[in-house]
Design brief:
By secondary structure, this protein is an alpha/beta fold. Helices cover 42% and strands 22% of the residues. Helix 1 crosses helix 2 and helix 1 packs across helix 3. InterPro entries: HTH-type_LysR_regulators, LysR_HTH_N, LysR_subst-bd, WH-like_DNA-bd_sf, WH_DNA-bd_sf.
Length: 300
């Protein structure tokens, strides 16, 4: 049961989106019900919280003050919940995690499945988001920690651990590239290649390699979805270029092989575990973070 009143929950959603309709979509509450709560709250407080503009709703000075207080109350409530969780130890607890789409398969589901067996009282909520949105979501208190690629600098965030993820060729285990410890990028001109396109971040380093080496990639297919690239490779349509993490699950199962591309100028992807510096983490969150740190140390 939510601790915050309906008015405060609705107010924060409208303030975040600047729109009653968008708040309605997020909360799955009728827009008319949200509007009534906001109007009633303004009446009780005796002040206008939003400016009604043709482009949407904008916070007044009073609204800004209330939103700041709401966020402080939310942080205080999270800290209290953390203290209560700590009293229970690891028998019970909950945590919220932000991850990119690339981690919806592979090591993280496996780790969380193992956790479910050993610590059934811990409830984990996983939210799939774009890496470039995660920093702001963490600071706003939407999650305990995030696993994100190439995190930009944010004063409020701290990187607990990180791993460099190599870029390489993904092929069938029977392919001759699979027997190589590492491979030159020039092989991309010798075999039919399946390459990623925007919005996948991997298209950038591939473009850098083409420009640096002068190699013309023998592209036979392109896709903006990692699973599609792997599916085409599994069907024998060509050799893919992906990160090790993208193919981790299939490599572990022996369905695909991964061979790193050898090039000193090729920057690896960085997978970082980030937290809000000011957030007091629950026992459950700290435990899962430790498990991920151990996995990074053992597997990569």
């Amino acid at each position: 049961m939510p601790v915050f009143s309906r008015f405060l929950r609705y107010f924060m959603a409208v303030a975040q989106h600047g729109s009653i309709r968008k708040a309605s979509d997020e909360l799955h509450i009728a827009a008319s019900a949200i509007d009534r709560q906001v109007l009633q709250g303004e009446k009780i407080l005796g002040t206008q919280l939003f400016e009604r503009l043709p482009s949407g709703l904008r916070l007044t000075t009073a609204g800004e003050l209330l939103l700041t207080s709401c966020r402080r109350w939310s942080r205080d409530l999270n800290a209290l919940q953390t203290q209560l969780d700590n009293l229970k130890g690891l028998r019970q607890g909950s945590t919220d995690i932000l991850i990119p789409d690339a981690l919806t398969k592979g090591f993280l589901p496996t780790l969380l499945g193992r956790l479910r067996q050993t610590h059934p009282g811990i409830m984990v909520s996983v939210h799939v988001r774009k890496s470039h949105d995660m920093g702001e979501l963490l600071v706003k208190g939407h999650a305990d920690f995030a696993l994100m690629f190439n995190p930009g600098h944010m004063r409020e965030l701290s990187v607990r651990t990180h791993k460099e993820i190599p870029l390489g060729f993904v092929c069938l285990p029977s392919h001759e590239i699979a027997d190589m410890k590492e491979a030159r990028f020039s092989l991309a001109a010798e075999y039919p290649m399946i390459i990623p396109t925007p919005p996948l971040a991997l298209w950038r380093p591939i473009g850098v390699l083409e420009a640096e080496t002068g190699v013309k990639v023998a592209t036979v297919a392109k896709a903006d979805n990692i699973q599609m690239i792997k599916s085409m490779v599994l069907e024998g349509a060509g050799v893919g270029i992906l990160s090790y993490l993208d193919a981790y699950d299939e490599v572990q199962k022996g369905q695909l092989a991964f061979t790193p591309i050898a090039n000193r100028k090729l920057p690896p992807l960085t997978l970082a575990l980030c937290v809000d510096r000011s957030r007091q983490l629950s026992t459950a969150a700290r435990f899962i973070i430790t498990e991920i740190e151990n996995f990074f140390a053992d597997q990569f």
